[in-house]
Amino acid sequence: MAYFLNMKKAVFVFGFALLLIASCNKEKDSKEEFVFTAPANLPATKYNFSNNPVTTAGFILGRKLFYDATLSRDSSTSCGSCHTSFSSFTHHGHAVSHGIDNKLGIRNAPPVMNMAWSDEFMWDGGINQLDLLPIAPIENPVEMDLEFADAVNRIKNTAAYKPYFKAAFGSEEITGPKLLQAMSQFMNMLISANSKYDKWKRNEGATLTAHETDGYNLFQQKCSSCHSTDLFTDNKFHNNGIKDNFNSDSGRAHITQLPQDVGKFKTPTLRNLEYTKPFMHDGSFQTLEEVLAHYNNGVKTSATLDVALKQNSTVGIPLTPTEQQKIILFLKTLNDEDFIRDTRFAEQ
Ligand code: HEC
Ligand code: HEC
Question: Can you tell me the mean pLDDT for 230-249?
């Protein structure tokens, strides 16, 4: 009996301690300053910060908008519905995105992270400015299905937003450009560069195992021509042979209308693959094992297949089962738990 009483007491004390920690965290958050700091191992940023520097109030407003479902026609869907923090800002478990009225899109939602380093967005590069990007999903009939002007009016008519705009931009006046700038400030702060690999690369005390090091070296030889730099993307468009015809989605050619761009998609980053599955623009691969098997012996030929995937008259990138496993072990060092657990980025 005494034991149970003590247990109860312990649970109570523990619960109280948790509450205390939670309230301290809240306190911390409200005073926290949000500053954009580029990690040392990433290349130069592409976003024009001189036009729109990240400020604490701008970040907080951007976060509020990112999670606000009133930006969709029936107030059901926010940006955060398809880009959830716990799945590295992808649409967890959805091969293709799933929006308003349960409508399906045709493409897998990519992770919204390290956006400040990109100037070509979407799988086909159809948008080249982060500040304009939100208009596309807001107006897309299978995503949020609302005229952008109407979305801005809804925010204008929500009294609660006025102090947020005042804090971020110095006046209560709400405009489309300010709304977009605040969203960019939030997205620019979604930086993932704290994986085991990053800590190893920056000499912050982490070490890679022998297998992970082998995987890293194989990756450098076989994969880094496209998945380059510590962003693990060249931000360019390639056909990596997942299909032999691209009639249902022509990729980059959808934007350029050029036959040589058919089947080319933007090289995705390989950070946080643990949380971003399924893979590829159409979500057609479920596991990293399937992806490595694809590069080894599943590559399909078509007119635009990348030259890196047809070296020495061999189609694909030949890799033994052991080599495939080692590359997978290396890719797992790119998972950044700090990023997906960062409560500053989650809905408040
Ligand atoms: C219904 C699901 C859905 C909603 C809602 C949604 N997105 Fe997306 N998002 C996607 C999909 C799918 C893509 C890829 C589209 C493509 O390539 O054509 C994408 C792409 C992006 C990208 C480009 C990432 C890259 O690497 O190129 C950004 C940034 C982004 N969304 C931000 C937002 C913002 C901001 C909102 C809210 C205004 C939003 N999304 C709402 C599904 C969604
Ligand atoms: C010719 C350029 C190129 C090379 C070489 C290449 N990739 Fe890719 N990779 C891509 C492109 C482009 C995509 C996206 C294709 C699509 O969605 O249609 C991709 C997709 C992926 C994905 C899915 C990521 C996601 O979030 O959907 C993984 C994992 C991957 N590659 C790993 C590798 C590995 C490992 C190697 C080396 C064995 C490699 N890649 C070599 C261009 C390349």
Answer: 97
